[in-house]
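Letters spell out the chain; backbone shape is given numerically. Take this protein:
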Amino acid sequence: MDRRTFIKRSIAATVMGAATVGGIWKYAIDRRSGVPAGVTASGADESGEPVVIGNRDDDSGALLSFMILSDLHINSGVAYPSERFRHALDDMLAFESKIEAIVITGDITESATDADYEEYRRILKDYKRLPPLYANMGNHDYYNIWISEEGAWSKETMPNGKTDAGSRQTFMKQFRLEKPYSEATAGGYRILLLSQEAYVQEKPSVGEGAWYSDEQLAWLKDRLALQNGKQPVFVMIHQPLPPVGQNGGNHTLIRAKEFRDILKPYSNVFVFSGHTHQDFQNGRPHYAKETFHWFHNSSVGRVLNTQYNPVPGNVAQGLYVQAYADKVVVRGREFVGRSWIKEAEWSVPLRLS
C-alpha cells in the first residue's frame, strides 16, 4: 500500500467511525520552538504584555477570544498546506475582533520529520508577533517511523530506525513542553490539551487511535477539579470520541468511557476534536451535546468532502471561540476567503447555577 492510499483509507475510516456517534460528525526564530521573534514562550512581548492580534479594541464584550486550528499537515515537500497556514495567519492578523491565543489540535505536520518541523518554523519566521500558541499531538505527528533514511514513505521497513518516543520528544521540544499534554491559561480560562501517548511502534494495537495513560487521565481529573463550576473549561483532543458507552479504537479516543466519566461531574466543559477534516458546509453536524459540549473542527491543510476527497478550490477552515459571562460562541471561519461559515455558528448558554 502506498502512502497516498494509506492516508486516504485512514481518513475514510475516521469519518465512518465518527458518523456512528448518534449521527454526529455527532519568526528570526529559536529553532527549538514555535515562538516568533520578540515574543516569549508564554506569548508575551518583550515588555511583558500579552500579544493580541486582530482588532484589540473590538466591542464584542467577550472575556476571551481565541482561534482553534486543526490538521495543518505541514509538509516539507508539498506547498499548499504551508500556503493555507499562511492564509490563516494573515486572516488572523487583520481580524475584525481580537485573538488572544491560537490553539492547534494535532497533526501539525504530515510526517513529523525534521524537514516538516523546519518548514513549520520557516512559516513562523514571517510573523514576528503572534499571540500565545499552544498545541497537542495528532497521529500524523508520530508518522516519522514510516519515513526511510532516503525520505520516502516505507511501510515495509517501518520503524526505519525511528521511535514513537522520538516523535514525542521532537514535538515537546518544538513547543517547549515537559509532557505531550499540557495546560494553558488565557484570559483566566483553562485550556487543557490532551495528546496520544503512543503509536504503532510502541503499541501496535492502537492503530491510528488516541491512547491516554493513567497518568494523563489522572492529570485531566485533577485539572477539572479546579473548575469553579461556572467558568467554562476548554478541552482539546485530536481523534474524535466513539459512541457513548463504548471505548474507542482505530481513529478514535481509546479510553473513551473513562474520559467521559471524568468530564461528567462538571458543567460548562467544551471539547474540541480534529482528525476528520470534514468541511463545515457538507451537511454533517459538527456539534454534539452530551454532559459536555463537543465540537468537530475542520482542517487548515486539507478540507474533505463526504467522500473523503479534498473539496474543490483553495480552502482552509477553523473555529473562532469567544467566552462571555453567560455563554460561549463558536463560529466556523474560512481563512482563504476571509469569511464566516453560516453553517457553523453556535451560541451555547452556560449553566450558572
Residues 5-33, 37-42 have pLDDT under 50 and may be disordered. The chain has six helices and 14 strands.
